[in-house]
Amino acid sequence: MKNLWITEESKDFRYGYRVNKSLFSGQSDFQKVDVVETAGLGKMLFNDNLAMVSEKDEFVYHDMIAHVPLFTHPNPKKVLVIGGGDGGSLREVLRHKSVEKCVMVEIDKMVVDACREHIPQTAIALDDQRAELIIDDGIKYAKETSEKFDLILVDSTDPIGPATPLFNVDFYKDLHRILNDDGIVVSQCENPYFELEMQKKLLSIKNEVFPKVFIYNYANLTYPGGFWSFSMASKGPNPIEDFDAQRVLDSGLEFQYYNQHLHSAAFALPSFQRKSYENLVQNP
Ligand code: SAM
């Protein structure tokens, strides 16, 4: 067992994690799902051999996908998470007292069940009274629902398999329709080293549909390159100009990664990114 490794690899690189034991392995209608206990990063979820979550650093991703828009919107009450089967985004959303309801639409029940059983650290809030779990395709849900939301988090896998149409203009038109007037959508937006063209495509799509588009960064341990981005599209609130740092302090919430200083700092882009996204974002 000492030399058992799980690897995430692409054409040009390979990331490996030493595995103590395999906890779950299954093939759903959508993807291969694995949960392993690693030697260095605690339990990890892999979908189609791509790292989704590690216990050691999941707080970075989930703090940043949730709290940045939740503290940008003036009064978020209804939130939709698309994807996010590990439950970490929903967990962070429900820490906000203003939130009355969080709907999570995940296509793959196997991911949710595996995380409920093996990674309770992220799945812990799935049974909260304010949570509604729907096992369905997020594309279909966004097209058909008559519900409206203040905030939508697209917590998706990479644009392959069932997540491919999540990187499409029709999907964002549907999200625009189901957002209230001050609504904001934040999406997993890959990384600027390996996926710059994908980032620019997603930013262009959002610009076609929303009046304000931003990108913000965070540093994490698990995803290739260690430096990742979320994109934000807003019908109204500006995450820098309209941000009230006092609200973060008054919330009484404690975070492992997010804070009021990091909120604004995350929108300050390195020069190579500023140049790459010219005319695509309204970052300072
Ligand atoms: N934090 C992760 C990352 O960036 O690697 C994403 C985690 S979460 C597990 C992603 C989830 O999106 C997966 O469980 C996958 O099943 C789900 N997903 C992919 N396409 C979807 C779709 N069309 N509708 C709803 N959920 C989808």
Task: Please explain how this structure is put together.
Helix content is 29%, strand content 30%. The chain has 284 residues and is α/β, with parallel strands linked by helices. The chain folds into two domains: 5-54, Spermidine synthase, tetramerisation domain (Spermidine Synthase, Chain: A, domain 2, Roll), CATH 2.30.140.10; 58-276, 3-Layer(aba) Sandwich (Rossmann fold). Strand 6 (78-83), helix 2 and strand 7 (101-106) form a beta-alpha-beta unit. It binds S-adenosylmethionine (SAM). S-adenosylmethionine (SAM) binds next to strand 5, strand 6, strand 7 and helix 5.
Short description:
The chain is 29% helix and 30% strand.
Key words describing this protein structure:
284 residues; globular; binds S-adenosylmethionine; alpha/beta; 7-stranded mixed sheet; 12 strands; 2 domains
